[in-house]
Write a structure and sequence with these properties.
Layout lengths: L2 E5 L2 E3 L5 E8 L8 E6 L5 E7 L6 E3 L7 E6 L4 E6 L8 E7 L11 E5 L2
Parallel strand pairs: 2-10
Antiparallel strand pairs: 1-3, 3-8, 4-5, 4-9, 5-6, 7-8, 9-10
Length: 116
């Protein structure tokens, strides 16, 4: 059974930073691209970033470029998202998802709230 468990969310002031983690199990982690997606209140799922199976390639939504960094540790079956220069519009539930297009396999999410 695919399990993805996110952590690291919280309340942060504008301009602050957070590092999200996602612990994966139930599948061969380094066989898959992995992604972060998010859902803001009242909105649909939004793609944030994707990383290739070995971490050699990374992709970001335009509004996240230069502020967010995706990474992975295949030895620990863990995906990360370093978020810097956070803005109020980054407030959302963040999910890690297996793959780079079908986000049906995703965790329960972690809430990120950016507010002063």
């Amino acid at each position: 059974e695919v399990q993805l468990v996110e952590s690291g969310g919280g309340l942060v002031q504008p301009g602050g930073s957070l590092r999200l983690s996602c612990a994966a199990s139930g599948f061969t982690f380094d066989d898959y691209f992995m992604s972060w997606v998010r859902q803001a209140p009242g909105k649909g799922l939004e793609w944030v970033s994707t990383i290739s199976w070995n971490g050699g390639s990374t992709y970001y939504a335009e509004s996240m470029k230069g502020r967010f960094t995706i990474s992975r540790d295949n030895a620990k079956n863990t995906l990360y998202l370093q978020m810097n220069s956070l803005k109020s519009e980054d407030t959302a539930v963040y999910y890690c998802a297996r793959g780079d297009s079908d986000y049906s396999h995703r965790g329960q999410g972690t809430q990120v709230t950016v507010s002063s």
